[in-house]
Amino acid sequence: MTSEQQDARARKHPLAILGVWTWETTLAWIASWPAVSLVRAAYGSHPRGDAPLWTPGAHALLDLLWRDMHGASATARGAAPVLVVAAIAGLVPMASLMVTMAGAGRTPGLVGSVAGGLRAFLAMALLLAIATAAEALALGAGAFAAYLAEAWTHAGLGEARAQQLGAAVALPFLVLVAAMGVTHDLARAAVVRRSAGGARALVAGAAAFRADPVSLGWSWAWRATASMAPVVLVGALADRLGGHGGATLVLLALLHQGVVFGRVALRASWLAVALRRLAPAHLDASAR
Q1: Which of 40, 144, 186, 265 could in theory staple to 205 by disulfide, Cβ–Cβ 3.0 to 4.6 A?
Q2: What is the pTM of this model?
Q3: CA 268, 271, 277, 280 torsion-angle sign
């Protein structure tokens, strides 16, 4: 393996990963601030603070949403544009992280990595638009096929078996969407490695995935699964500890941010794999 391939390692660039984590945390804070303000306005003077919202059954939470439906709707409408802008603007820090990891032994620095991310923005945006449309079509087709399978067999097989058949029919479409996601990231790597435009990068990403779908699929799948495990664990813990203040609240905040950082690190690890696969030396060896 060449030095260019060896240098594309996420663990060698903790500051770049920290930068992406900071970006995502800041955007999450901005998007959630209207909801925090809404709860503070409703429960700011309550002797227990927002603790009633955490009681089993969620009656207080449902009451808040029902009584302040207009405020909740405004909060959702305010958060939606932030999330859309974050998805698009987030291409720059992601591309900057990839530029840093692809430095081939020379770290470009903050200015150099951000400049590289900005140069890759248009190609990344085109890839995002194409991948989003393709994945939406595949998901829609899978949902429609599952609905038809369940509807046609409901009377003969019963509700439970018909639902199982519908899920089985939808499964290949979910695998297809995952393959599209892997190809999308490989195309992003081609943008960074080869300065390719959107169309050329997509062709290069598809070729790389076709050359080794099992290994690449596994590399993506285990990291995706590992990134979800702490979300489930910390979510269950938050359900038990929620509503408490003081040290418990600090602990929950630290656990939450630890989960976010871990997910960013695993994502960076997968993008490093994509960068190594799109290194010129690896592509030349595959072609032979």
Answers
A1: 186
A2: 0.79
A3: negative
